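User: Could you go from structure to sequence for me? I need the amino acid at each position, not a summary. Structure tokens:
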């Protein structure tokens, strides 16, 4: 899922977290998901530049199964979302996973028989934002994973899933934070539902990736 520290606020990017208070949605998400986030990350081994190729391939298959379940639902929720900063179409990941898995020797037709992973129920925007917090945070942390694997002749060309935004990963994460804060505002029920969805998504990733 990438380095846990990557999901922390960046100085100068909208002000330090402390100035927003403990009820800020990003603070609530980070605080509430910290334990499961750390468990998922610790169990993956993706920070290890010597990760076995077979283990890496299996993880990428699991990521594919997760996004196969998530992306159609997120497409339905965000396909016509009114805030252009979200830019949902630019956040899709399945195409890159398909490309990486092809590089690893798994043809696209071999992916069609894979069952989708189990993900939490939910068909409203609170679910969508909770899921995006997890997947976009993983993308931000994925920059480090790609760098660690850049010297691996067998894996370096199969890391596009982790680097979908090039040098714009930080900006894309900041954009999501702006949209999420704007959408949640001071609505505590909405904030609690987003946190619950993020927790459920992390737990789905934990189940699928281990």
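Assistant: Here is the amino acid at each position, in order:
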């Amino acid at each position: 899922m990438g380095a846990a520290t990557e999901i922390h606020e960046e100085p100068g990017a909208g002000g330090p977290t402390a100035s927003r208070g403990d009820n800020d949605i990003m603070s609530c998400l980070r605080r509430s998901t910290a334990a499961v986030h750390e468990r998922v990350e610790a169990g993956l081994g993706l920070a290890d530049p010597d990760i076995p190729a077979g283990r890496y391939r299996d993880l990428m298959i699991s990521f594919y199964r997760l996004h196969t379940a998530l992306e159609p639902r997120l497409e339905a929720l965000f396909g016509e979302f009114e805030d252009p900063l979200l830019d949902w179409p630019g956040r899709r990941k399945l195409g890159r996973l398909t490309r990486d898995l092809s590089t690893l020797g798994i043809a696209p037709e071999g992916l069609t028989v894979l069952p989708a992973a189990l993900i939490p129920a939910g068909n409203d925007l609170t679910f969508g934002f909770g899921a995006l917090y997890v997947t976009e945070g993983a993308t931000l942390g994925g920059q480090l994973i790609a760098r660690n694997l850049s010297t691996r002749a067998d894996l370096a060309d199969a890391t596009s899933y982790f680097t979908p935004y090039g040098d714009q990963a930080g900006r894309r994460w900041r954009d999501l934070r702006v949209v999420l804060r704007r959408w949640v505002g001071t609505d505590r029920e909405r904030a609690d539902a987003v946190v619950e969805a993020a927790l459920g998504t992390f737990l789905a990733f934990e189940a699928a990736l281990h």
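One structural detail worth keeping in mind: The two ends are 12 Å apart (CA to CA).
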